[in-house]
Amino acid sequence: SEFATPQQVNLDVTVNGFVNNEDVDYYVVEAKKGERITAEIEGIRLGNFFFDPVLSVLDKNRFELTACDDAALVWQDGVVSIIAPEDGQYTIMVRESAFGGNGACTYRLHVGRFPRPTAAIPSGGKPGETIALRWLGDVLGERSENYVIPADATVPFGLFAKDDKGVSPSPNAFVLDGLTNVMEVEPNDAPANAPVFETPAALNGVIEKDGDIDFFKFAAKKGQQLDIHVLGRGIRSQLDPVLSIHREDGGTVAGNDDSGGPDSYLRFNPPADGNYLVSVRDHLNKGRVDYAYRVQLEPVHPRLTLGLPERRQYFDITTSVAQGNRMAILVSAQRKDFGGELLLDMKDLPAGLTFETVPMAGSDPCRRAGRCDRPADRLQDSGRGARRAGHRAGARPEQRHGVGPYGTPHGHGHHR
Ligand SMILES: [Ca+2]
Ligand SMILES: [Ca+2]
Ligand SMILES: [Ca+2]
Ligand SMILES: [Ca+2]
Question: I need a surface site. Which of 82, 152, 157, 247 has the fewest CB within 10 A?
């Protein structure tokens, strides 16, 4: 469409569309002065195609009020919010970032008055506990609520912001790491003002303005190692964190900026008994009301990551085992902080199927095929049985940090 001939849409709808080459789509909405208008697009997150959308909001004079190409919250999709400065019409523009596009570039555009906070802290907790949640980054400002984490919550998990105007179209990331939450208390820009906590714990805060740095203090024993992860992008925050560990009497003993992405990680081996400080800041010393972080400090846990190397992203693996026949599945295993033999099992197989693997020795290069067998004499009746025997491989691979469908980092394969 053209700016002069946009498609009229109501507020609080989802528009399904697609972007062709050099295509720009215009949608116009009617809003009252002071109303919150948000547009959030799902393009690349639909997983159909490498479609990188850009959103803008224009007023009736074609003046751009706001625009967004990529936002950490929604990956390379965009999200824009305004408070309508006057009664009237506002135009939402959708295009591909390089003005490309084709029939596979489908999108879902959510337009409405719903809340759209860009961060929530604390950004994790224990199933069943009640937390004092702060919603940050909404164009109408911060909001707080008591929130009960469902006792049966499972990964991936996210929080949907709700108010009297609606519900966010996609959740904010929330980590179920079982750690005790510690909240920052400003001012904490100097070690002398650092709140004291005990490990293991998760520290939650915001680098809320340019130049902000947040200190926290804890006691450690010589040789008792800690794994320290800072989740910025891992909780879909725009913050690019820098982590440092300092001695109480001054001097930095460890630090990390990026660890396979903008987030920070280090394994801290305390050189002596005593008090230490953790500090978090932005790598460019920038800050914003939604630059949230979560620092996880835990003892070293053994981790196991299983993968199905033949799996394609966004597709589940289905294995069909023909009657009287067998099928092999390739499984990869990555051990961290433990060694020794691994034995795989597959639960809840359909009747008549058996599964067999040989142990993966500690010294093994990390791949092994599992085998499903289906003897001919066990399933006599047929066509139906044969179709039912198509079985989803149970060992879903763990995904990389931050690529879960709900933006919840769940690369931590803790085996406690
Ligand atoms: Ca984009
Ligand atoms: Ca802060
Ligand atoms: Ca601070
Ligand atoms: Ca970083």
Answer: 152
